[in-house]
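Issue: ligand-bound run for iron/sulfur cluster - logging full I/O for the record.

Environment: standard queue, default settings, no custom constraints.

Inputs:
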Amino acid sequence: MTDWDTLAAEVRTCTRCPELAATRTQVVVGARPEGARLLVVGEAPGAQEDESGLPFVGRSGQLLDRLLAEVGGDRARTAVLNTLKCRPPGNRPPTRPETANCRPWTAQQVALVAPDVVVTLGLSATRWFLPGKEPLGTVRGRVHEVEGVQVLPTYHPSAALRNGPQGEPMALLREDLALAVRLTS
Ligand code: SF4
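Outputs:
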């Protein structure tokens, strides 16, 4: 198996999705701190991620950092990536071919991180691991074993932001992150 840095260098030059390759500022490969036992997976980079080249640095990322810290986790010890490495224009949803194009990169990244648990943020990232039709609300909050990988689906921080500090997604996201941190301790 290739190492993370070699893979990252390959991903940065990827042009499998012509529209995304033409419109992105840069490829957002993801972050994998040495020794990370927790992997958090989102859908796709947004404008700030596209600009900075780093995953989850916008409002959703800041909320993720805060909630992780509240439950005893640490972003500096957490691997973070998206199933799609390039920002879709206008933050439109990724197309099926785009998701399929990027799938081999993501699969290699998951294998390289080899985390104790993967937290999937939102339905799109959850579907990447758990294809099917079950709504997020019925699969979240518990661990699913998928080809040897422990997958814990939860809400996307953007849903928690939309519903506000007293909303259910915020409370459940915090609860699920707490479970993930316990599973990696
Ligand atoms: S989204 Fe993935 S597959 Fe598509 S161009 Fe970017 S890195 Fe390549």
